[in-house]
Amino acid sequence: MEERATKVLLEEPQTLFLAPLSRPALGSVGKTGTWRTMRPVVILDKCTGCKICWLYCPENTIFMRDDGKVRIDYEYCKGCGVCANVCPFDAIEMVPEG
Amino acid sequence: MVVNIRKLPDRYYIMPGNAACPGCPETMGLRYIKMALGDNVVLVIPAGCSSVIQGIAPRSGINFPILNIVFAAAASAASGLKAAFEAQGKDVHVVVWAGDGGTGDIGFQALSGAAERDEDIIYICVDNEAYMNTGIQRSSLTPYGAWTTTTWTGKKEHKKNIPYILISHGVKYVATASVGYPTDFIEKLQRAAKIRGFRYIHLLAPCPIGWRFDPGLTAKVAQLAVQTGLFPLYEYINGVFRLSPIAKKYKDPKKRKPVIEYLKLQGRYKHLLNKPDEVKKIEEYIENLWHLIDALEKTFTAEGGKGEAIYRSL
Amino acid sequence: MPIMGLTGNYAVAHAVRLARVQVVAAYPITPQTTIVEKISEMVEKGEMNARVIRVESEHSALAAVFGAASGGARAFTATASHGLLYMYEVTWWAAGARVPLVMAVVTRAIGPPWNIHVDHQDIMTLRDTGWIVSMAQENQEVLDLTIQAFRISEDPRVYLPMVVGLDGFILSHTRAPVDVPEQEVVDEFLPPRRQPYVISPETNLVMGNIAPDDIHFLMRYSMSEAMEAAKKVIEEVDREWAKLTGRRYGGLVECYKCEDADYIAITTGSWSGDAKKAADMLREEGYNYGVLRLRFIRPWPTEKIAMAVEGKKGVIVFDRAVSMGATGPIFADVAHTLYGSNISLMGVIAGLAGVDMKARDFAEAMRMFSSRVEEEGRVYEPRFWLLPRRYRGRPERVKEVAKRWS
């Protein structure tokens, strides 16, 4: 669907019509998880599900699990480390990738 | 109004996989707009980091409909967009999302015009204190002493006080906010949303790349700016000024953290850390800033506690 | 239909009212200002239902109407000269976004020195932007063309912004009888606004973020194709307007006595009337002239021009603008249109900075051209400066001025 956003359907498509259009979509520059040099790891025992990391995450790659703790979407997480720094319980650890 | 973040649903407030640098304060800010205002929003974005953050068509990494526009024209394009919605009987929040250059330099004329006309839009200046997108050149909002690629020995002038200038325009709503205090920013957005007319929010957005700090520290640096008294948080609604509750205590210089704690985290101030005279200039700036805040507080009051009632009603 | 005595600017304002424009934004500049004054008056008197945004600059004027058009409103602005130059950046943005939009440009010279009088230097800067560029000859055409502009710009085969050019003071401030159509006639002619997309929460669309270079390339190609398609649309619109009002102009070009002519003079704008008078004068002298008036500069009427000059002895082009270091802009396009032909060709640069051009001035250049063709054979003179009358053929006077003024 979003792939076709640049091509808008016309009532009378008599000419080639291309406009500079997009729609919000995941991965507008690809899988940004590959940018990571450091990886945030949630220490589940310490996580209270307070959502502070969720609130601050610049990338929207932290989600709530069914058990109320957080999980990280590593496909897109850029590894900035904001979550580890704001966590009041030191429940997120930054570990080197690779 | 109090924001309960636990009640905010899990959803894409911004689209992951966008082109923002790690630790970007702009994507943080954009998420809070969606948390505060929901989906009934159109963004108008002039040239800047957020033009690039969207990523590559036909996808966009910012989860809002957007009208991208040339650098100097954000406030005017937003005025027209809002007029179009009004003409069609649609009630939509038109929100400008512009950087400090797009607000205080090249976009200032259009901003001032839209403010004076009291256009029914929310204008947010996401202030990272330099032209980051083009590679960290100084703007009129770069603070004194900061290194940029056009001020190698530190900027010689102080930061232009845009929110103060907007108060002077007599607009309906002016606020300052910091990405270090998301709930405060969200509450301000929600209050702004309930007011008609021109609303301005100045959002401090520390940039790890341009300010030279670890990308994990974005929130911390944004908090320190407030805690050192360098960036006071306040609101001005319909002629009533008040310091934001979370930042009220920094009115007392003794409660402020030493500004050096803020400076030493940032590579852009590295050259002046061992120059006490330079640090003193920044301390003096803070003092002067609070004199101004004091004056604003005393000038824009509502008799008989009416002011507080205005804030509570929104 | 009532006949009103209207200036060109008021004709524009009435056309904007009849087109049911919803958002207008403009900034004062002579000689455009009375357009927005009149629109403001009609809005405040309740004769027109639109929002007028009194912006703080032309850059903002076009940005505001572009914003309005992107949001789904029929929008209009007007400017002139330095105002157009100031909004130049936004003209490109609006065209590239493919948002239908109409603007009036009241043509005026560009400084320094300050000068409010007519030439075409300002409007000619729009040639590369992707705007459809038209020029009117008189006030009735100003009104008709402005109404047509919305129809052309909003045609799905086109979806490009359009500018209506009218000459400063000559048309803008000179009153002439104008047949102002009834609202029902315009409503029948102009359907509700159509546009390729709307930026709104419902569509969730984003306009203008970075695109891959090859896609951007194709977008430029698409604009060029739309310009080609506009040629057909312009002709259709001309015919349809004629059905409703009885007024027909000829679409992209107007031919005046072209069929039996040996020579063609190419012009655009209000001075075409003087060129036509000159053609009549020269016919009495034995030079059979016709005048091809360009109603549109973009899309460039290649086929129409080629057809009109086929088999003629010579073509003389009158430009009221100049591309420094080259020729007049219309001449340049005529020259490429006639590539490969052996026809005699002359480009005349005249009337800059509001210098008056009367029929006898046109006649002088046309006579000189034709006599040269008949004496020398093929003539190719791309840049002939037809100086103001008192300096014409008097280089010593020009030198004297240069001496006195420096």
What order do the strands of the largest sheet of chain C run in, or round the barrel if closed?
A: 3-2-4-5-7-6-13
Strand order, main sheet of chain A: write it out: 2-5
Number of structural units classed as domains of chain A: 1
The CATH top-level class label of the largest domain in chain C: Alpha Beta
Gist of the model:
The complex is a heterotrimer of chains A (98), B (314) and C (406). With 98 residues, chain A is α+β, with helices and mostly antiparallel strands.
What would you note in describing this structure?
The complex is a heterotrimer of chains A (98), B (314) and C (406). With 98 residues, chain A is of the alpha+beta class. Chain A has one domain (26-98): Alpha-Beta Plaits (2-Layer Sandwich). Helix content of chain A is 10%, strand content 20%. Chain A has helices at 52-56, 82-86, and strands at 21-24, 38-42, 62-64, 70-72, 92-96. A two-stranded antiparallel ribbon of chain A has the order 2-5. Chain A is elongated, with a radius of gyration of 19 Å. Chain B has an 8-stranded mixed sheet with strand order 3-1-4-5-7-6-8-9, sandwiched between helices. Chain B has helices at residues 25-37, 49-53, 74-87, 100-105, 108-116, 162-168, 182-193, 208-211, 218-227, 259-263, 276-299, 306-313, and strands at residues 41-45, 59-60, 66-68, 93-99, 122-127, 173-178, 199-204, 234-237, 240-243. The longest helix of chain B is centred in the last third of the chain and has 24 residues, at 276-299. By secondary structure, chain B is α/β, with parallel strands linked by helices. The mean pLDDT of chain B is 96. The N and C termini of chain B lie close together (7 Å). Chain B has one domain (5-313): Thiamin diphosphate (ThDP)-binding fold, Pyr/PP domains (Rossmann fold). With 406 residues, chain C is of the alpha/beta class. Chain C contains 13 helices and 16 strands. In chain C, helix 11 (329-337) links the parallel strand 14 (314-319) and strand 15 (344-349). In chain C, helix 6 (139-153) packs across helix 8. The mean pLDDT of chain C is 97. The chains are: A alpha+beta (98), B alpha/beta (314), C alpha/beta (406). At the B-C interface, strand 1, strand 3, helix 3 and helix 5 of B face helix 3, helix 5 and strand 9 of C.
